[in-house]
Amino acid sequence: MPPPLFSNYSRPSDRYDEMLDAHGTVRPHWHTLLQHLKASSPAAMRQRVEVTDRSIAENGIAYNVYGDPDGLDRPWALDPIPLIIAADEWRQLSDAVAQRARLLNAVLADLYGDQHLLGEGLLPPSLVYGQHGFLWPCHNVKQPGGVFLHHYAVDLARSPDGHWWVIGDRTQAPSGAGYALENRLIISRVFPQLFRDLKVQRLASFFATLQQSYEHWAPVDRGEQALVVVLTPGPYNETYFEHAYLARYLGYPLVEGQDLTVRGETVYLKTLTGLRRVHAILRRQDDDFCDPLELRGDSTLGIPGLLHAVRAGRVMISNALGSGLPGSSAVMGFLPAIAKRLLNEELMLPSVATWWCGEAPALDYVLDNLDALVIKGTYPSQRLEPVFGRELQGEARDEMVRRIRARPHAYVAQELVRLSQAPVWSREHAHGLQPRNVGLRLYAVATPDGYKVMPGGLARAAGSANALVLSMQRGGAAKDAWVLADSAVDTFSLLKSATGKGTLVRAGNNLSSRVVENLFWLGRYAERFDGTTRLLRLAMAHYIDNGGESTPEFEALVALCLEMKILRPGREEDDDDDSDWVPVEKRLRAAVNDPATSNSVADAVGRLFWSASQVRERLSLDHWYSLNRLHRDIQGRSADQSELGEILMLLDRMLQVSSSLTGFTMDNMTRDTGWRMLLVGRRIERLTFLAGAISAFLRTLPGRNGRHLDWLLEFTDSIITYRSRYLRTPELLTVVDLIVLDESNPHSVMFQINALERYLMLLEKDLGEVPSDAFSAACEAFRSIDLDTFQHTPATACAEFAKQLKTLEFAGFDLSNRIGMRFFSHVGAVSHQTLAR
Amino acid sequence: MARYHVIHETRYDYGSSVSLSHQMLHLVPRTSQWQNCLDYRLDVTPAPVWRKLGTDAFGNPVEWFAFYEPHEALHIRSEMHIEVHPHRIDTLSDSIAWDALAGRLTYRSGGHPDIDDLAAKRYLFESPHVRIKHELADYADDCFTPGRPVLEATAALMEKIFTEFEFDPEATTDTTPVLEVLKNKRGVCQDFAHLMIACLRAKGLPARYMSGYLLTHPPAGQPRMVGADASHAWVAVYAPGSGDGWIEFDPTNNLLPDTQHITIAWGRDFSDVSPLRGVILGGGGHEPEVAVTVTPLDDATADTP
Fold this sequence. Notes:
The complex is a heterodimer of chains A (about 850) and B (about 300). Chain A has about 850 residues and is of the alpha+beta class. Chain A has five domains: about 5-75, no CATH class; about 85-350 and about 435-490, no CATH class; about 355-415, 2-Layer Sandwich (Dna Ligase, domain 1), CATH 3.30.1490; about 510-670, no CATH class; about 670-830, no CATH class. Chain A is built from 26 helices and 22 strands. Chain A is globular, with a radius of gyration of 31 Å. Chain A starts with about 30 loop residues before the first helix and ends with a strand. Chain B has two domains: about 1-85 and about 275-305, Immunoglobulin-like (Sandwich); about 100-270, C8orf32 fold, CATH 3.10.620. Helices cover about 20% and strands about 35% of the residues of chain B. Chains A and B meet through strand 8 and strand 22 of A and strand 1, strand 3 and strand 12 of B.
């Protein structure tokens, strides 16, 4: 009887199985894992799957899918069962990958130099001159150390005879190493004992090697320390998670094109304290977008003039601009001869059989054997999805043949590799393994001692039993790849890397203006979210407590919400008189759930999440997790269906998360200029919110009884302080004193003013003049208010006080604008191309 | 031989402050076997903070400069004295057959390609403004009959474009695709050059985009007007064995350029040799005013047809 683990696992005779040999016996390097699985209870495995899924969700590991109707981020799918690679097999594989990286680097050096490969007929000119990826302005540009290809990734598949074949070379800006690292962190925690027992090779030293390579090649002037930045196209990119993750892991600032500027032949990072020279750019943006002056003129992501610095050898860009060239499948067929010419070596890792149709004999073969081949475009710019020849019938087939004949050099055909299969953990069946087609992506990095291959990689399993395409975009799953060590495991971790005194960096001098702007708004939105939620919770609680009946207190609350623009009016001003009056309950629901209602809680969370995602590398994982949970919590509901009680509970939860966010801000973030700017944002928002709300309250106060003061205290989160001080029902004078003037109440107006003035002073030390004169004057005027008038002429005093608060509110908005103009003015300004004939 | 005095002025009024500007110029004339620049002068206002001279990947002189201070206008004045020698060839019919040439340029593995053929292939494939589509090969089909000498066929294509297309400065912009020009049959010299290049490349023939100036003739009895000229674009096709291997054609005027065309630069298309290409931060409207004045230095030149 087969063990239950295998009841859904079969081994077909026509493909290689990673786990079972030809006789169905478990391969030796899989024994330990299988024993471990057999010994695990179903409950334990269920828990492992849950831990895996939860880690993915909580860490916000996502792969953005363009055009995904479910939203921008799709959670990364990760299978808990690792793909295991034996030590001796790995030695051969990693040598072969390193050789291939060395070869492709030599190809790039030749093509951007003397072009012997073209002169000797070893590579067709159309695969160079005809490629948009061949960047003419980079011809004859020298690279630091002669290295073009710093990062290389290769996609491998294993054929039925057990050999690995290359199905794709990634030389532009290979993605996935960061995902591989994250997969490893999760799976090693899912199977901690197994991970130790199996002596799995660690990944950390690979990333340390990468850092050392940057330090080695970055062109620094005497006395300078290399500043390396990670260049990302921004949060809309499909692998943005990885950009932020790598930046945080490597300790490099994450920048966008607009954060950098070129002066003369030097690249600078725009920081709050001025320009700081950048020595190396880890590029995660396609090269043709990098310099709108000489490359794609329509690029708004680029750094105008970057090529000046590149030509002068003043900046290292990895990978070099133009390095995408040998990533075309059409090049593969020419590599064996090129390896002999450039390296005088045999190519160790073969490519899957590839025919470039630009050669007449190849064209004939392809047209005769279409059913057995996959058709691809020669040039990435064709944006042609791979087409399986056997799926082409009738007219579609004729059309394809006609197109290939018309421009044969634009097409490549590849043999179909029958992929090997490996076990994945079944989610449909209670307890067992299922076979899935797998592929393996490996990574290499250039070092002064040659290419080093990451011992591990990103394995990918197809989404369904017979799927041929391994694509995260098409529902596949990632797997961790465990390479077994045959000697002691290198337990090096980046966290323990040796540091000398010279490498100690205390102050965050490398903060880009953009990051600081986003931190400022992160502060403002966090506070806006808190204030909005607090006020709505109060209104919602009153509404529920009174069974939907209107009371004077509820009406006052609604009036305040309207004044604060948290609630929409029942009828918009420009509506016709006979348009429907929107009932208050519907509006309350919208104010919570509807992201399209401006100033709703959902809207505030969306903005909060957005600004946080812009500075993701600055937030701890726990911090990010809280935000992520918040975002998912409010996104996942529809406004009209939830019970009111449920909505109230949601608001309660929101406020709990809000205070944990405050905790992270105060306790977990580095106290640098960026952090102070975040606090300035928070204080400005709280000040304007409080001043605006209290002012509105006081204006409408006369004629109301003391019960209103209860909710005013609750809304300003001051009720506990009040009770501990006064032990009696609230009175106007004492309440106003506590929430406006009491310097020791962190929710008072005065507290905000004092804190703001303190932070502004500190900022002034860091950054020079801060435009706060007008604000200081308003604060001075406010401090001179005399409370005595409340005892004699309360009505007049209220009106006067309301006016003063309103003035203060505007002073707060004005300060925000001035800070924006002084420090962030470049954000949003987009360069554009000019042409004259 | 003809000698000219050329002034090419470009003025940008940005309308509002530009805080950062990078510019790349293809204004310095290229020296060739038939062209020699006697003197050259470039005036730029405001004065650039940084500038550098160099040569681009196609061998053209290029000048870069940058401004890091706010400014609201940019004025560039390029002035030269230049002599152009006759180089037009007399007969088109003894050039190599176009299909033989296209066949010879097709890649064969292992063979060492002819060095000139290889250099010419830089101009054989798609480039940013020249997408190669089968419609273009179809359009040129009747000019390229089997075995026809390449220059004869190219001249026929030039005449076809000249006859069927209308010069219309309003019809296109710098980014109008070639296929749209083909459909609407309207455009300016740049469009006709791109279209002709696309047709030639679709037939497997290397073709260059030529950028420069053309001497224009004022109406009889009227004086030459300052600034009335414009920068011009035409085409050169690869014809090994004829002339220096590249023969020029001007589809806008249906003629073979000689001493009345002044060459500034050549490349795969306009994007390689735009006279003034820049990226600015800030600024409002930025349509430049361009004025070119080409003056022949001896009257004999002016009257040569």
